[in-house]
Amino acid sequence: MSRYIDVIEPMRQASDQSIVAFCASCAEQAASLYRGLGNAEFQERFEELLELCWEAAGGRADEDDCVEALEELEVAPELDEDDSDRQEFYAGHSLALIAGTLAASMRPDPGKGELSGQTVETVLSEFDWVLAGSVPRVVRAGDPLPEAGSLHTAALDAQRTVLEAIRDNGSGGTGDLDLTRLREVSRELAAEITRALPDVAAHRSWDVAEA
User: Fold this and answer.
1) Which of 15, 43, 93, 176 has its Cβ near the most Cβ atoms within 10 Å?
2) How far apart are the first and last CA of the chain?
3) Which is it for the CA torsion 73, 76, 79, 80, positive or negative?
4) Which of helix, strand or coil describes residue 127?
5) Per-residue tens of pLDDT for the chain, all 211 residues
6) Start-end of H helices in the chain
7) Strand, helix or coil for residue 30
8) Of 96, 146, 86, which is closest to residue 119 (Cα–Cα)?
9) Is 63 within 8 Å of 46 (Cβ atoms)?
10) How does DSSP assign 129-165, residue by residue?
C-alpha cells in the first residue's frame, strides 16, 4: 500500500519502547471508535486497557497484565467482524490497536508500528470518503495518491508529530520522550473523530453512544 508518510523507517531506527509509544499513540487516536461504536458494557474495561498501553509505553506495565489483556481481547466479538458496513468492524479496529500495543510491549517489532499507523490512516480515509458522499474512486498503479480528506490529514499530522518526537529521541528509551505530550496530541485527533462520528454514523445507520 502506498503511504502518505513513512512510518516503517523511523520505527526501524527507534528504540523498542519508542515503538510501543507510537503504537499507544495510535490506540489513543482511535479510542473514540470504541467509545462511540463499541459495547457499552465493555467501556470501563476498554479505558483500563488503554491506560495499560501507556503504562507499557513508559516501561511500567506488568507483563502478566499484558498477557491477560491480550487473552481477553482475543475473544472480543468485534475482532471477528469483517463487514465494513457494520459499526462493530470499526470498534474492532480500536481493540486491535490496543492489542497491537500490548503485543509490541512484549515483542517489539517495527512492523507493529507500521500496522498501527496504517490502521488509523485507513479508517479515517474511509470516514472522509463516507462524509464526501461515498463517490467511487479508482487509483491506478503509478497514479499520485489522492488528496487526503480532513480527518485523514489530521491523522497524518498527529503521526508526524509523534514520529518527530521519536526521531529526536534517537535509539534511546522513552525516558526522554514526553509521553504526556504525545498523548495530548493523540487525544486531539480522538476529539476530532468524536465530533465527526455522528455524521459518519448517520450515513451508515449506526448507533453512536453520546460523548
Assistant:
1) 93
2) 33
3) positive
4) helix
5) 445 677 878 888 888 999 999 999 999 999 999 999 999 999 999 999 999 999 999 999 999 999 999 999 999 999 999 999 999 999 999 999 999 999 999 999 999 999 999 999 999 999 999 999 987 776 677 777 778 899 999 999 999 999 998 888 765 555 578 999 999 999 999 999 999 999 999 999 999 998 6
6) 8-13, 16-29, 31-37, 43-57, 63-74, 87-106, 110-131, 150-169, 179-204
7) coil
8) 96
9) no
10) HHHTT-------TTSPPPPP-HHHHHHHHHHHHHHHH
Residue type for position 127: F
Compute how many other C-beta atoms are within 10 angstroms of the C-beta atom of residue 79. Answer: 17
Residue pointed to by grid coordinates 503504562: 55
The DSSP call for residue 5 is S
The alpha-carbon radius of gyration of the chain (Å, integer) is: 17
6 burial (CB, 10 Å; 0-12 / 13-18 / 19+) is: exposed
Q: Are 120 and 159 in contact (CB under 8 A)?
A: yes
What amino acid occupies position 175?
G
HSE at residue 114, side-chain half, CA atoms within 13 A, is 14
Contact 206, 87 (CB under 8 A): yes
Answer for the pair 163, 143: CB distance below 8 angstroms, yes or no. no
d(CA 84, CA 122): 12
Whether pTM > 0.85 for this model: the answer is yes
